[in-house]
Amino acid sequence: MRRRLRTLVAAFCALPLVLAIAPSAHAADPTTMTNGFYVDPDSSAKRWVAANPGDGRAPAIDASIAGTPMARWFGSWSGAIGTATGAYAGAADSKDKLPLLVAYNIYNRDYCGGHSAGGAASPSAYATWIAQFAGGIGGRPAVVVLEPDSLGDYGCMTQAQIAERQSMLTGALTQFNRQAPNTWVYLDAGNPGWAAPATMAQRLHDAGLRQAHGFSLNVSNYFSTAENTAYGNAVNSELSARYGYTKPFVVDTSRNGNGSNGQWCNPSGRRIGTPSRLGGGAEMLLWIKTPGESDGNCGVGAGSSAGQFLPEVAYKMIYGY
Fold first, then answer.
1. Is there a catalytic annotation at residue 206?
2. pTM beyond cutoff 0.85
3. Who's near 234: CB < 8 A, 6+ residues apart?
4. Residue among 215, 214, 182, 246 nearest 27 (CA)
């Protein structure tokens, strides 16, 4: 507790400098309030290992995937969302660890792709849900990735639908700023293969990026860390030129060890990447998507549903074949 108080005092004293570099409503740094990242004790990989102790693949999956700090995703399946995020952030806080959470419930989610379609029943339902999400975390330290794919998924949307989505994201960021002062929120920015840096910079800005701590890249995708770093820097160059500010970014490295082969939905021959840590060309490298969880009914995951844990896919991803 004393370490956290010292951290908050130091962050408060440095606030004008932080705001000058990257405007944000947050003063606290959750990475210095905790001692490393939290390992989800109930991840899909952990559950599979526990249920299959005699499987020959279990030791490798346990050692290389289940024991690695990863994000937990929250959506309509999470029940009372404030209770769910509060319990997860509280469990991490009790161990002095930093939890990674993904908010994935925006209205008209995956509207164009369809593999992960769903989300809240209406914009107002989403506003209530995300407010409770933030409120559950409260003052505990946390990292949140906000609505993967939401800004890349514009191809089949009308301008009215785009404006509606931007408003939902801006409202979400407002809620985190009000209710979760020790949470770093990263507004998702897709991946290097989705939108040009100038396009993504505009989408981020229009969705309220100034209110966020930063943006996230490569969530559930396979592009190399180097490609994502170059893309993130290019987005920041556009943000600086157009709007006069830049933001930190994080990269999902969970499945990018072999880079991308151009496919996004359960491609073969991919490999796990650098485990969650600070730095690496980005502010943080994070495992946001669990290796072995399906992208949908496609590729080497044919016959599966999005989010389903596939042990054979996980096992092959450890070795890259």
1. no
2. yes
3. 197
4. 182
How far apart are alpha carbons 161 and 86 in whole angstroms? 31
Look-up of token digits 């985190």: 176
Q: How many helices (H) and strands (E) does the chain have?
A: 10, 8
Closest by CA position to 286, among listed 276, 278, 274, 301: 276
**CA-to-CA distance for 306 and 245, rounded, in angstroms?**
36
Query: Integer distance in angstroms from the first to the last C-alpha of the chain?
Result: 46
Cβ–Cβ < 8 Å for 286, 31: no
* Identity at 282, one-letter amino acid code: A
pLDDT digits (tens, 9 = 90+) for 131-142: 999 999 999 999
CA distances from 1 to 7, 26, 32, 35 (A): 10, 19, 12, 12
Sign of CA dihedral 84, 190, 69, 12: negative
- pLDDT 10s digits, 111-137: 777 667 789 999 999 999 999 999 999
DSSP state of 25: S
Choosing from 149, 153, 188, 252, the catalytic residue is: 149
Question: Which positions ≥6 away from 88 have C-beta within 8 Å?
Answer: 72, 99, 101
Task: Pick the range with the lowest mean pLDDT from 90-99, 194-203, 293-302.
Answer: 293-302
What are the residues whose beta carbons fall under 8 Å from the beta carbon of 112, sequence distance 6 or more?
A: 153, 154, 155, 156, 157
DSSP string for 253-293: -TT-TT---S--SS-SS----PPSEE-SSSSEEE--SPTTB
Q: How far apart are CA 94 and CA 2, in angstroms?
A: 15
Q: Measured between alpha carbons, how far is 22 from 247 in angstroms, rounded to an integer? A: 6
Distance, CA of 111 to CA of 156 (rounded, Å): 8
How many whole angstroms separate alpha carbon 271 and alpha carbon 239? 32
- CA-CA distance, 218 to 225, in Å (whole number)? 9
- 194, 218 contact by CB (below 8 A): no
